[in-house]
Input
Amino acid sequence: MDSRLKTFLKFIRIEHTIFDLPFVFIGIELGLLKTHIAFPYIKIILIAIAAILARISGMTINRLLDLPLDRENPRTKHRELVTGEIKISEARTILIISSILFILVAFSLNILAGLLSPIVLLSFYLYPLTKRIPIISHFILGISIGIIVLAGYVGISGSFPMQWQLYGYSVFVALWIASFDVIYQDQDREFDRTKGIKSIPVLSQGKIKVPVLMINLVSLAFLIISSLGFLNLIFNLLSGLIIIISVHWIGRKHIDTIFKEFYLPIPFIILFGISLQLLL
Output
């Protein structure tokens, strides 16, 4: 693979972008159930492209706004903007192009998706700006990901979701992602404390297991009650079990291992359960 392309994919954290896509497809599937239309391949591809563009935009603005901190943080001093592998001007270009393309693709899907697209971008942009407000930044990040469940529905149907379960899945995703951000931010607890960043790890002095467990239990309540049927419920319960087990490994396994072993499979398990339920 070309080294520049490799650097770009690393910069936008392509694995996290792929991680988000199943949540978009939850909205798409429920949207198809409402509209009763034939499988619209082109539209689904466009929605996936829009989700990727929104994530690229969000990741880029986060890197740009966090650059002063990343330059001082020992953990982040090798990031592409800090080392110069990606220039600031290039990052700004990536941000502008990805944001404009996202809005254009959203309008190509339907008018409602186009009109709501700036709200999706705004949710991504807010995250790095809220890190000095106590606790809230974790949940802003969660909302920016959780909202894509609803975005998938709007993109495919051109209307606001009427099924309450879809909002339940959206809240689950928002809270569950927030719980991962708490674990992720714990890596920078001491550095963040010196910079006035009021994350849960800083405020709890590193005792994050209880807050993470509490957030996950609330998220799982939304996941379970949003099940569309018995098969969907079985897979949601399996996801819940994996999530609860993941809390046990906080501090015992590296954050990347926790993500790969416990967080990465969850979106695909949930999507499979919904797909199986709707098919049968």
